Amino acid sequence: MIKSCCCCCRMRKSSRLVISDLAQAHGFPLLLLFCMGLLLLIRNSSFMICHHVSGGFIRNANSSSSSNPDRDSVLGIQECHKNSNGSRFTNETVLLSENEEQISASSSTTKKLITVLLGVMISSVKMERRSLLRLAYGVQNAAPFADIAVNFVVCKPESQHEKLVVGMERLQYNDMLVLDCEENMNHGKTFVYLSSVAAMGIRYDYVMKTDDDSYVRLQNLGSSLSEQPRNDLYYGYILPCENQDAHAWYMAGMGYVLSWDLVEWVHDSPIPKNNSEGTEDRLLGEWVNAGGVAKNRVSMKPLFYDHPDFGGECSHPLVPETILVHQLKTPQRWSHVLSFFEHDRIDLLKPALMIS
């Protein structure tokens, strides 16, 4: 801008000399014509300078300087538009000012990205359920401030057909976590899952265990976990249903989350190793109590709940803020849930072409 202003000053000084010479040599008519052309030239050059500054603002939108060059650029644009056309600020100036406010708000609310491993406990024979879950999670919008990896956790396939199917799914989707165990629910699978994840060499901020009849809303989970402690966290739905004290019993197996340090503790401590047989969610509560860990316990009632058709004290109608819905054991319940959460994003199937 300083260079441009100097150029403008020289232009004005030289133009006065030229005008004086023309006035003496050719009289007033030619002088008037020359002045009109010069005014048009100055107006066009002013317009170009304004747009040059505008481009500078966009390029510098993410710069960090104590003098705030972004705001200086906006003020420069406003002054330039006012001087060039004498009117109030144009829509372009207003839009850039709003953009600056958005950038400022975005930078002030930026959160650290968290990583989550969501492990769905499922039998290797349930290929159809895995296909449904891949669709249910695949169509969801990305979780804010969270990188959530959904994996299907199976024990060793038994038949050749199961081995073939699981092997092909691994090649196609790369989302199968095969554990060194016989398929089970309450005979150590959860312990093998958590201890195996701890030994994989990939660190997550949080590890979640959930069932294949549960549906997790990834955006809501990510937003919720981004506000939680990064250490010593035991998060889920505290039982029984009427219990409101997260320290009173244990988190239901429909879905619970452990911070990474607790996952490592499960791998290293002799307490889980020596007590891995029994109802898996209750065992986990016993482990952390016996070890004196999991001081940060968070119950997410009523955003974890059973499907309303299941009934009972743990169920209620679907709500948009849902983090997890459990007891989806029928196609009708899955259809109800997916229609509720995705109806506005999925167009009903229509013929691509009407033939008369």
UniProtKB/TrEMBL annotation:
UniProt keyword annotation of Lyase present: no
- Which cofactor does this sequence's record say it needs? Mn(2+)
Its localization reads: Golgi apparatus membrane
- The transmembrane residues are 22-42
Q: For this protein, what is the EC number?
A: 2.4.1.-
Describe its membrane topology: Single-pass type II membrane protein
- What highest taxon heads this organism's lineage? Eukaryota
Write out the pathway annotation from the protein's UniProt entry: Protein modification; protein glycosylation
UniProt entry keywords in alphabetical sequence: Glycosyltransferase, Golgi apparatus, Manganese, Membrane, Signal-anchor, Transferase, Transmembrane, Transmembrane helix
What is any Pfam family matched here? Galactosyl_T
Q: What is its main location?
A: Golgi
* The UniProt record lists the keyword Translocase: no
- Which family does the similarity line name? Belongs to the glycosyltransferase 31 family.
Supply the name of the protein. Answer: Hexosyltransferase
Species the sequence originates in: Sphagnum jensenii
Q: What does the organism's lineage look like at the top? A: Eukaryota, Viridiplantae, Streptophyta, Embryophyta, Bryophyta
